[in-house]
Specification:
CATH class of the largest domain: Mainly Alpha
Number of helices: 12
Order of helices and strands: EHEEEHHHHHHHHHHH
Largest sheet: 2 strands, parallel
Distance between the termini: 42 Å
Number of strands: 4
Strand order of the largest sheet: 1-4
Helix content: 40-55%
CATH architecture of the largest domain: Orthogonal Bundle
Strand content: under 5%
Structural class: mainly alpha
Number of domains: 3
């Protein structure tokens, strides 16, 4: 079995290549020129966390790739609409981790009730992240309700923002930025925008991105540069230009 998750994060060009590969694999041309369907001895699952029809309209999903696999399209409702699945999911996570780490932790009813009252905008992945975080933070203790109440759910929701793993609407990150920029121009009315607008807007995105990454790495610029995909000298220059603190102590948690 092969799983291609978050297909919407692949570029259209990559999706076209996937379509060509699997289309040729499934339909083999014969001497008559007619395609012949082939039975393949493997399973392929393509997953997405966004509204596919919306993504097709936004040119983020190659429609022919979706059509090729649409015979087995399964729409899974968000976790907030199937709260009855929370208990079996928790038990699955717990049993798996107990086996891996030779523990005997159990899920109590009050934990299930507390987690059922939450809206879970990040769906199953957010639930899994929360449970694993609590499990490992309290590795030598029995699980209790307070462990889960101590979690910062708002912070957890934003962990996978860049990858769109947690998405509360059909809008992508770029859509949200576009909306903010449009609102900016609407508010201007007939007034002229300030000079050097491009650099101003880029810095508005760059500064919190770099600052948040430095907090994540506890001020380690080398690690931050690797995460951001830039070299260390470029990062140092941006820190200087954007007037971001370079003191490691400012980012220690």
């Amino acid at each position: 079995m092969f799983i291609l998750n978050n297909i919407e994060n692949a570029t259209i060009e990559v999706q076209k290549k996937l379509f060509k590969y699997f289309n040729n694999l499934i339909y083999k041309n014969t001497l008559t020129g007619m395609p012949k369907y082939q039975n393949l001895e493997f399973k392929l699952i393509i997953g997405s966390t966004v509204n596919l029809n919306y993504s097709i309209n936004q040119k983020k999903i190659f429609e022919e790739l979706l059509v090729l696999f649409s015979d087995g399209l399964i729409n899974i409702p968000p976790l907030r609409n199937r709260k009855e699945d929370i208990r079996p999911l928790l038990e699955f996570f717990c049993n798996y981790l107990n086996k891996e780490f030779s523990k005997e932790k159990i899920i109590t009813d009050d934990i299930v009730k507390f987690l059922e009252d939450y809206n879970w905008p990040g769906n199953v992945r957010e639930l899994e992240y929360v449970f694993k975080k609590v499990f490992f933070e309290n590795i030598d203790e029995n699980l209790n309700l307070q462990h889960f109440k101590n979690q910062n759910f708002k912070k957890i929701q934003n962990i996978n923002l860049v990858n769109n793993d947690i998405q509360t609407s059909d809008e992508s990150f770029s859509d949200l930025v576009k909306k903010q920029i449009s609102n900016f121009f609407n508010l201007l009315g007939k007034d002229k925008p300030p000079p050097n607008l491009y650099n101003r807007i880029v810095s508005e995105v760059e500064k919190p991105l770099i600052t948040s990454t430095l907090f994540y790495t506890n001020g380690n610029q080398l690690k931050a540069a690797k995460i951001l995909g830039i070299n260390r000298n470029t990062l140092r220059k941006k820190i200087l230009d954007l007037k971001i603190s370079s003191k490691k102590s400012d980012y220690l948690k």
